[in-house]
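As a warm-up, study this chain.
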Amino acid sequence: MRKRIFAAAAAVPFALAGIAGAVRNPEWLDERPLEIESGPRGRAGRDVVWDRAPAGAGAAWADFLAAQPGTWRVQWDATTEVPLRIWGEGIAVPGAMASDAIALAAARGLLERHLALLAPGASIGDFEVVSNVSHGKGGAMRTVGFAQRWRGLEVVGGQVSFLFKRDRVIVIGSEAIPAIAATAPARVIDDARAREHAAAWIADLYGNAPVASAVGAPVVLPLIRDRDDGVAAVSTRVVVPVTVDSADPVARWQVFVDAGTGAPVARAQTLRFADGTVRYKVPVRGPTRPRMDYPAAFGNFRISSQTVASDANGKLTWSGTAAAQVTTALTGPFVAITNRAGSLATATLSLPAGGSVVWDQSTSEQIEAQLTGFIHANLVKQFVRSTLNPNLPWLDRSLSVSVNESGSCNAYSTGDDIHFYRSSNQCENTGRIADVIYHEFGHSLHDQSIIPGAGSFDGALSEGVSDYLAATIVNDSGMGRGFLRNDNALRELDPVGTEKRWPDDRTGEVHDDGEIIAGTLWDLRKAMIGAHGMAEGVARADDLYYAIIQRASDIPSSYPEALAADDDDGNLANGTPNSCLITQVFAAHGMASGDVPSAIGIGRPERDGFRVALPIEPPTGDCPTPTVQTAKLEWKVRGGAAQEIALSQQGQSWAGTIPTQADGTVVQYRVSVALSNGSTVTYPQNAADPMYEFFVGPVVELYCARMDTDPGWTHGAVAGTDDWAWRAPIGAGGDPMMAFTGANVFGTDLGGGSGAGADGQYEPSSDTWARTPEIDTTGYTNVRLHYRRWLGVEDGFFDKATISVDGQVRWTNLNSNMGNNSATHHEDKEWRFQDVDLSADAADGKVQITFALKSDQGLEKAGWNLDDVCVVAYVARAETCGNGTVDSGEQCDDGNVDPGDGCDGYCRDEPPPPGCGDGTVAAPEACDDGNTANGDGCSSVCTVEEDPQHPADGDATGGCCSTGDRGGHGAGAFALGALVIGALRRRRRRRA
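Now compare it with the structure written out below.
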């Protein structure tokens, strides 16, 4: 997300957005959850680290494990180094489910015992109990939540919670702010000056005429940023919150000003609604679809001079047997309609005794919006009451539903009441669309359902869960049909061939990020239906959705909360009834720990020549091996048209073979499988580079940097900090956990330490480069760059990773060219082989390669990680090479095309390395028998010779195998060790 300032634009805080053509926040309110007045922006979202404790928390975590033995998992907030969620087999607390006092005493004792872990730098007196409630089906769970204080002041967002089930503590959550070092003013600014400063800041930013109103008591505000050089990632200020409204267009902020001086510190948008740009034709679940006669439930009607309430079936009772003259109702105990275009619609209908009557206003947009708002707001309220939480007090209050508001293509929630806009040429009146009503109600439900001290209102989470609520009610993954006056989905929760993942697809914009959890929940619903049948599956999925909105503080924390809600014995370490299913779904969306293949049991493709196999292995834990319904391989020669091959089951794999292609070509491919649980897995998992590739034919190495030793490349920065380094990766910020070969890589920001290079992600507003030495290519015409990369970079519309040769750009990451909606980020999730043609650059006899990365001011990713960087040349081999006869143009021919035996793969003499034949084995020798003769077990170039009676497996000549046929001789590997370059590393097989 990027801050952009516009003098006049439409404001829209919270609801529908996402794909092109959707409704979303306007660009002038394209703000992060907390926008900080100066310095780096507030973080776009929480980054989490699994299990391994950050350096600063190691001792406290070890103390916890010693005090609470058993199996535990943990998500760490990577910025604050506080454990976001800890869960496992649990801590026994007999009587906790039945007794508030027992549960509270246990929770307080655990908090005090492990304060250094859960809230470093705080004291037990800094925590106030704010909840001690039973919840879940039949009161199966209990949450005790504590709010954080500092010198008596509220710490915004600071909290610690304990979840009990079956008399055991099974989840501990902490969003406590560590080591608070704020300064309280001697005198707090008066309310009038606080309002003045807050309103002036908003007016200066947006050019409108804001009005400041409520001024709150002083609080401690955490300022949490993405890690940047020279700026503390976590700091705190004592501030005064001020509510600032903009009336036209609608917007509302909570502005935090310094409690002493009134200087603006930060702001947060508090209205939550949606807007967007129309780009696709989007369907409607509204006026373009059939209408139905719904019962007008829970309305306060008038019969004669009396008010008569209808029941849940829309039934009225009056005295006498004659027909009643009924004045219609748009208000009631649960829903009250307000018509912003004028007075409420009304009609007098004749209702026969024992009969029925229909009020039809389908020809009037603004009247039908009032009827639709009343019917569907009541329906969604009753859905929540009957299926999710019958004890939520908010459901008993009358919900204000405002329709026909000025503006178009929008709707929003304040966290309580909900609002809908009129129609336009592009968009339908949002008060006439059931999905939109359900979605906006979902925001308010989220806000009202949060358990204090445990959950938090996170904009991205709320967008996604609100989409899910609408979709599950209408039983359709296409949410918002009819919004743009057709039947296409406004947002699709189950897009074909792609799954949004956290944090790979995170942009910092709440509607974009909400699609990640919305898709996860819909896939969870499908999987539950597959496992338990339609009715039971939907009920289970909906229960997990509701548990998440009660206790999750953001999208990453939703996974352990789903597990906790599914648990049946108070011990998360031994799994839950649906833990495999839940883990597989969340892993597919990047929200469960571990490698996706190991979590779902579908391995990454393994290639042998032109044969591609997809291994099916038992997933981690006790999860069953997934059932594959169909599998396919798409392939093409680079630059050509794609073709498709159906894979067939072959043992423990699904495999197929690409037709043999000519030497010198580059082949690209991808594999996808459809599973019995309704999910789809596609490899590679990179929307910006969606096909693997390999080069066909033998190559000669002209230069190789294997990264086993420092390659000695030059590197620097045009802007920002030079964060290129050579060392072992540690998996920080999306980097790999290990090199492709050996131990080290060369890349940007490899993590560890402090400042630039600390978090694994490249720096904002930077322009850095790394350059190879000049490489001699004399005598070769087909020269290639062959290397392994693990690259993470924002969509090329914003950030650019480039490969330049002699100053000319030869490759750059994808630019989706969608303006501010550009979000096709390049995210490698494995080591990828890439071929870059350098032939034109090599014509002058030399090349020099530069890897560079240029970033804008927001959204940084893993950057470059490089291994096995080689410049190679393809040289066609003579047909007679390897026939055992030295023909014209050959220097030697020993009957094979294997290198390392004195005669290379092109029938040229191989010189022995220095020292070969002196009887001492020294690098790079594999053997040294004191001579340079062949045929005695150690070749003339000091490589081990195969016993001709016992050749290597799979090759009767003792050499490597080939993808091509050359006069009946296997075309042996040369230099890089494979004729087909770019095969994926084979994964280790797990034991059954």
